[in-house]
Amino acid sequence: MLDAANPIPMMTINGCIIVAIRDDLDDQEIVSLQDRLVEEVAKRNAHGVVIDISSLEIVDTFAGRMLAAMAQMARVMNARTIVVGMRPAVAMTLVELGMTLDGVETALNADRAINAIVSDRSNKL
Amino acid sequence: MPNETTVASIIINDYDRVLAEWLKVQTAEGVKRTDLVSGKESEQQSRELLSAMAKAMPKEATDDDLDLAEAGWEPVRDALEDIAENRTQRGVSTTEMGWFIGALKQPLFKMLQSELGEKPRVLMREIWNATRLIDQISLHAIETLVSKREAIIERQRAEMTEVAAPVVKIWDSIVTVPLIGTLDSFRAQTVMENLLDAIVQWEAEVAIIDITGVSTVDTMVAQHLLKTASAVRLMGAECVICGISPKIAQTVVNLGVELPNIVTRVDLESGLAYAFDRLGVQVGRGSAGA
Is residue B42 within 8 Å of residue B131, measured between CB atoms? Predict the structure, then answer.
């Protein structure tokens, strides 16, 4: 069980927040993760967020919606959000559920996502 | 009544005569498909089935309690299995299979009548028993024949789906799947699974689906393609659909099917060019070609 003393690790590298979501999250913990993430974006003035969901074996409609919401929130705070590492089975389930997560940017792994964010950043500067 | 003539006693004691008569009726009824099953084979199969029946009959009930599923009937079931196996491969129809066994009725009835002609009540009972027995055997035979055929169909279908959706890596970070034939839900699912797995395996950034070989593109096929493209995007790769011929373009527009947010190209060549462009790969003629 996750609690206040054992939260999901969240690290910021070079202005880019990296979160790896674990498999055993319940709805309550996803909501608290969302709170912490937007706090972190504001505090660090981050320009990128990478959410790694490679350990998620099941993504239901709620989790899918929260992912989309997180991406949108980070974007309005000027942080580019990329969801990485979705498993084939999860992708197929989401498509069958009609959740194509159109507003969410995706990448195959964290490496590619960070590269994209960093090169995007250096182009802008 | 151990000495009374029954179906069982006829088959056991007058085995050779029953067999000879049966083969004669088979010929007369025209169920001897000599083009598919040679006369010798047919005779061999009839002999095996009849001897299996003669073997099983002393042990099992042949009256109203008849049940082919009983252990004692195993040799009969095995013999039917072999015959069905052989005849499935030759393409014998179910009707012919049914008649093949059904032809046994006539000799049995004739012999029962000559033996029990003076005892109509016993005769009726035995004819009824014989009918039940032959019907059950022929139904079982047809059942076996059909299940053998279904097994063949199932095997071929599995082989077809296996060979029909090969995902190949054609460049660093580019995978492609050429689709051939019709795209039903089952195959679309297989294609999607294979493609997504390949994306993970080869860390692909662009997935090219080539539909040049797909015979028809209707709303269903478009739906499947759309789903696949969405799933590919969720995995973090981009999907390109190639092989949109002029005919397909017309059909798609006339059907009102939309393929939003999907890159489409005329052929594999231009699809590959798009992928190269996306990945920043430059292709040109080297000095050797000049």
Answer: no
